[in-house]
Design brief:
Helix content: 25-40%
Number of strands: 12
Distance between the termini: 25 Å
Low-confidence stretches: none
Shape: globular
CATH architecture: Alpha-Beta Barrel
Number of helices: 8
Structural class: alpha/beta
CATH class: Alpha Beta
Radius of gyration: 17 Å
CATH superfamily: Glycoside hydrolase/deacetylase
Length: 255
């Protein structure tokens, strides 16, 4: 039976500003990536999100970012690798404390926004993130867009996990087309793309070309206007096609 992890970025509210329907999304997921305060999130938001994830039995990952609250972590920054390692270690420690206090355990790490894109392309940045992960728990897998930085991550003793995005466009070279504000997608279209990513390992780029997909996890965005409707459609389609949804721990062999 084919299997896949379904993850979603969570805990991205800040103070009195609310983003996304985290609780509405959780029944349709196997993993969540919780913001750690650098691009979004604050201590009460982190606590509430972690508690809800534990209650739903979801695997909890750290959603690391550049220190960019104003830009929601989507602006590229020039950061020396040694500083980036410190930024990541700081964020991992904060989330780990909340997860442990809720009776859970960190399960994976996923960079956010600009850091995600840059670490997927730059082995030095990927290695810096991986070193912080290794110092926290060398058994934690690291999610990135593709396997281009696998060797750099593996050299730090960390397993790289590629993921795919059924509710985002890809350009012809396989790069994500990031929406400044997440748009509503047709839920049935996202569901068809998700099934195809799992069964055929393919996705159609926005230029019409066919791209290969190498992914153990699919990411759904909870900040879309119709996010819960989309997650419901994806979940139903995967079940209909006999695809098992399991957390990364059931799919990844770590060192």
């Amino acid at each position: 039976m084919p299997s896949i992890d379904i993850n979603c970025d969570m805990g991205e509210s800040f103070g009195r500003w609310s983003l996304g329907d985290d609780l509405g999304m959780m029944p349709y997921l196997t993993s969540v990536n919780v913001a750690t305060g650098y691009h979004a999130g604050d201590p009460p938001t982190i606590r509430r999100t972690v508690a809800a994830a534990v209650e739903h039995g979801l695997a909890i990952g750290a959603h690391l970012a550049f220190p960019d609250l104003m830009g929601f972590g989507r602006r590229r920054m020039t950061v020396p690798p040694e500083d980036l390692e410190d930024y990541c270690l700081y964020q991992l420690g904060a989330l780990d404390a909340f997860v442990r206090s809720a009776g859970g355990r960190l399960a994976h790490v996923k960079p956010h926004g600009a850091l995600y894109v840059m670490a997927s392309e730059d082995p030095q940045l990927a290695a810096a993130v991986a070193r912080a992960v290794a110092k926290t728990d060398p058994g934690l897998p690291l999610m990135l867009l593709n396997r281009d930085t696998t060797e750099a991550v593996a050299a730090e003793g960390i397993t790289l996990v590629p993921e795919a995005f059924p509710d985002l466009h890809y350009d012809g070279s396989g790069r994500l087309v990031i929406e400044p504000v997440k748009l509503a997608w047709d839920p049935d279209l996202v569901a068809r793309r998700a099934v195809r990513m799992v069964l055929e390992r393919k996705v159609e780029a926005n230029e019409g070309t066919e791209l290969d997909v190498d992914a153990l996890s699919l990411c759904l965005h909870g900040d879309a206007p119709n996010a819960v409707e989309t997650a419901t459609a994806v979940h139903a389609a995967l079940v209909e096609h006999g695809i098992e949804m399991v957390p990364l721990a059931g799919l990844v062999v770590t060192p």
